[in-house]
Predict the structure.
Amino acid sequence: MDKIKIVVVGGGWGGCAAAIAAVKAGAEAVLLERTDMLLGTGLVGGIYRNNGRQTAAEEMTALGGGDLFHVMDECAGHKNIEFPGHAHASLYNVYEIEPAVKKYLIGLGVKVVTGASAMKIDKKEGKMISVTARDGAVYEADAFVDATGTSAVPGNCVKYGNGCAMCILRCHSFAPRVSICTLAGIEEWNGRKKDGSLGAMSGSCKLFKESLSAEIVKKLNETGVCVVPIPAAANMSEKLGMKACQQYATKDFAENIVLLDTGPAKLMTPYFPLEKLRLVPGFEKARYEDPIAGGKGNSMRYFQFANCSHSLQAQGEVDNIFCAGEKGGAMVGHTEAVVTGTLAGCNAVRHAAGKELIELPDALAVGDFINHVTDEMKRDECRGTKYTFSGSVYFERMKERGLYLCDPTEIAKKVETTGLSGLFAEKIC
């Protein structure tokens, strides 16, 4: 019998996790990424294990799906740090992480194809059977994972943001994102900002460390965090409502510049006018690394979530597409993408093998998160909310339900009570 084949479209954290899960389940996995690097916005990110993300990372490890968290740990420049509103955070180095993840994928047997932007799909008898890339290459599979995200369409940045900010997504050079769910006729929805307009702006920028004062750089290198009060003349609190990352839309982030050391200096704000930024002591020579126009804007995200079940199966004209990362709903963050990608990749294989799809239990944070968010996305009034283990409404839900745990041993024991320990390490086919 031929080996089950899974094609994952999109090489962000969710797509990488899906490809890993598919291979571990016994399938062949092909990962298509439209640019020349994996991880997408993960090349700007770097924060994990903060607040409820620690719970999620350890649950996934106990479930047999902790591979990418181990890679992050190996590339972490700082561990167990605190910054406003966030405890026990780790910061991976954004310059080191992509080669490390790519090496891990290839070592597992994932076929990674870069420069492969999806253009069209073929369907037959209620199933997707292939995706065609921009170069004409055709990739057939038994099931597919849509990990294309919800951004990288320049028109959205212009229409709903402050214009193209020339960000890490590089859609002008590598073509815009194309969702296979869209091509397959899956029902999709848009997120909204607080003012009702569509989408949300990415929530952080990168500054060149070399452009900052020696004192700031020393603090970053030693502790991983530097908090600098914003003078009244440079206040930009009104921009917080635009952020995709609402866990950082708080008074602390309105009144201070919060920098994190992720290799560059990670600026926790969607943008900051350069003339105002340079009024802040220590930032007189500040220069943006990403986005290039970070003084004006950032990428726009949260367009086109797919209608998904708790198993992350896309609901529509075909039954063999599963969704990872932001494609599955307004889920913010790398940890969240790894969690959804792992389940999507595993269920893609299970579907192809004719086995029952997995829905993670509400007794676990990762299960409650997926089940809750996919339910909430079906209600129009909920699509303006962003969900993350690290703060805002979902972290509060975690605490209220007793799901927020930090100790790895305690978390492993809880997973064991569900009977699902090692679930994502099991061969299916």
